[in-house]
Amino acid sequence: MTTAAGADVARRVEHVMGMPVSLALRGRLAHSAEAEEAWQAALAELRWVDAVFSTWRTASQVSRLGRGELAVEDCDPAVAEVIALGEAARASSGGAFDIWRPDADGVRRLDPSGVVKGWAVDRAVVPLLALEGTDVCLSAGGDMVCHVADPGGEPWSIGIEDPRDPSRLVATVPVHRGAVATSGSAHRGEHVVDARSGEAAGALASVTVVGADLTSVDIDATIALALGVDGPAWLRSRLRTGLVVWADGRAETVA
Predict the structure, then answer these.
(1) Cα torsion at 230, 232, 236, 237 (round to 10°)?
(2) Are 208 and 182 a contacting pair, CB within 8 Å?
(3) Is 81 inside a domain boundary?
(4) Total of domains in the chain
(5) Which has the closest alpha carbon to 222: 208, 202, 203?
(6) Residue 24 domain boundaries
């Protein structure tokens, strides 16, 4: 949830990469043709990412790479970039996060989904940030990049859902310039797996991380959820700030 009290906010939404992508703009160019052009450029970037990285598209480069039909050097250079991010996440998490996952037959397949969303939104927001005098909040599946043109201006107010009751909020975070990512079970069930055991991570109901860029906070929120009881301490070792909601409903601030 994104709010901006007292401001005239222009909003747009599109379904891309299998999820709702929404944009909120306020300021000088919020309702302009330039804003629409930047929005279309952002959507084009997300559609390109989906074409290259989707694990649901059998002809995508990532699908073909995972099946051994392509080598990394045969793919767009962005694929190597995402794989490198995934490998760094695997190392920092002690193996709890891994972009290589066994399928139903036990064969390890490439699935960089835990890296791609935040990384893609960081790329897609670039043309929107070029809108002069305009505040931007670009959200994909609830994770978002926020930017206030005037550093002293009104922040975006980001609501963090209660994972046990998404109709209510457990916290509200003001963001001037940065990113917010939440990983949890509210909308998709226990979909995050500890790659070391192959079991769904159930100790934490949700993890929200706030930071400078969506690529890193999205990965770190997923890692912390996968780590379960060790997640909050791991986030502190990363000097992250955010909010952890345990499966029993306890909320813990990470600072």
Answers:
(1) 20
(2) yes
(3) no
(4) 1
(5) 208
(6) 2-46+86-254
